[in-house]
Amino acid sequence: MVDYSPALMTDMYEYTMLDAALKDGTANRPCVFEIFTRHLPAGRRYGVLAGTGRILDALEHFHLDDDDLAFLADRKIVSRETLDWLKDFRFTGSIKGYREGEMLFPNSPVLQVEGTFGECTLLETLLLSILNYDSAVASAASRMVSAAKDRPCMDMGGRRTNEWAAVAAARAAVVGGFQGTANLLAAQLYGLKAIGTAAHCFTLVHDSEREAFESQINALGKSTTLLVDTYNIEEAVKTAVEVAGPDLGGVRIDSGDLAAMAQRVRNELDALGATSTTITVTNDLDEYALAALQTAPVDSYGVGTMLVTGSGAPTCAMVYKLTERENADGIMEPVAKKSKDKATVPGRKLAYRSYEYNLADCEHVISGSESKLADFHAPEDWKDLLVQYVNHGEINHDYQGHDAIVNAHNYRAKALAELPITAQSLMKGDPAIPTETTVL
């Protein structure tokens, strides 16, 4: 695996701000930063939060070694005093936010980071790059899973994005409801189900399609899935059943009118006695294509390009903003931007979701000073959306690793089921529930 420092996955101005703040004394001011998005991608009804587990993984290694410090010194990015400050840097603040797999909406405070200005400002780019991409993929995956109904979706997008983004996308796709991935590094790192058999080149390298099928079955057994659209699909299906027998595991179709071809292939398989052989389809699928295939006799889907690009929305437009800081008198004070179209809500946040008849009807964001929030008492039937990820530098490991991904996968399904049914519509519309912000 590439050896790199998450502490350099930053924009340069995070270090130059740190340098200046250390010199003027504001670097040690306690602060609260918040990540949120002002809007969902056009027409989307909800988003899915993903990436918090990867953030915790990165935080464990967020420090600079001698080579990193030498790089900062050689480029004259920071002063000698700041290099000394960075030498033993570890994040000692606290982080809370929405759990992975949770539904998100405009102005949902999905992550809140509390610590000194110096340590919090260094995290901005890393946190945003992870949450923006992973949540975009998980949100697209969730829409695809809804459109696919009960048929499993698998990630096949590795060759359609950056090699490291492919690993992140595989993980986020599973959070979003997918069942597995073709990416072996993602499967290894996160304990995901790995899938895959053969491409068209495997058929083409053999002297005949029959020889290719015989080779694959000899190597992988009759339960394998044979790719049947290299030449003539009808002939390929016939050959596949002749070679493997009626116990052939599956066939894959990667071109043409997928619904029509799946129907013909299903009928042919049944006529040949291969009634339990499954059909997988691939070929530039997105949620709309999956919805169009709902009546086709398809058993599973492989999704690539549109998954890893967020199905047209490759980012969630999340931002990282300072909402509270200690003032010159040592008192914590809510702060906010007033910029046109970019104003922010001052103060740290609480977040809840209310329900009527077991369906979510509103997101409630409560903002204010720490003391005012401490006195706020939410109605008993409101669901608290925030969990503690890091407490004064101590990471909650319950939100890392394979089990955390499985929990997020299951939680997403539950959280989506609690939204009004319009959330699953593929037609453009407003967010499934409104967000009400109250400043105390």
UniProtKB/TrEMBL annotation:
Q: Name one Pfam family in it.
A: NAPRTase
Question: What pathway annotation does it carry?
Answer: Cofactor biosynthesis; NAD(+) biosynthesis; nicotinate D-ribonucleotide from nicotinate: step 1/1
Q: Which GO terms describe its cellular component?
A: cytosol
Domain of life, source organism: Bacteria
Q: Which reaction does it catalyse?
A: 5-phospho-alpha-D-ribose 1-diphosphate + nicotinate + ATP + H2O = nicotinate beta-D-ribonucleotide + ADP + phosphate + diphosphate
Q: Specify the Nicotinate phosphoribosyltransferase N-terminal domain's residue ranges.
A: 8-132
* Residue span(s) of domain Nicotinate/nicotinamide phosphoribosyltransferase: 153-323
Give the keywords, sorted.
Answer: Glycosyltransferase, Ligase, Phosphoprotein, Pyridine nucleotide biosynthesis, Transferase
What Gene3D superfamilies does the record point to? Aldolase class I (3.20.20.70), nicotinate phosphoribosyltransferase (3.20.140.10)
Question: In the Enzyme Commission scheme, what number(s) does this protein have?
Answer: 6.3.4.21
Q: Name one GO biological process term.
A: NAD+ biosynthetic process via the salvage pathway
Post-translational changes noted in the entry: Transiently phosphorylated on a His residue during the reaction cycle. Phosphorylation strongly increases the affinity for substrates and increases the rate of nicotinate D-ribonucleotide production. Dephosphorylation regenerates the low-affinity form of the enzyme, leading to product release.
Q: Which PANTHER family match?
A: NICOTINATE PHOSPHORIBOSYLTRANSFERASE, NICOTINATE PHOSPHORIBOSYLTRANSFERASE PNCB1
Family in the record: Belongs to the NAPRTase family.
Described by its record, this protein's role is as follows:
Catalyzes the first step in the biosynthesis of NAD from nicotinic acid, the ATP-dependent synthesis of beta-nicotinate D-ribonucleotide from nicotinate and 5-phospho-D-ribose 1-phosphate.
Which NCBIfam families does this entry report, sorted A to Z?
A: NAPRTase_put, PRK09243.1-5, PRK12484.1
The identity of this protein, by name, is: Nicotinate phosphoribosyltransferase
Q: Which organism is it from?
A: Bifidobacterium thermophilum RBL67
Phylogenetic placement of the source organism: Bacteria, Bacillati, Actinomycetota, Actinomycetes, Bifidobacteriales
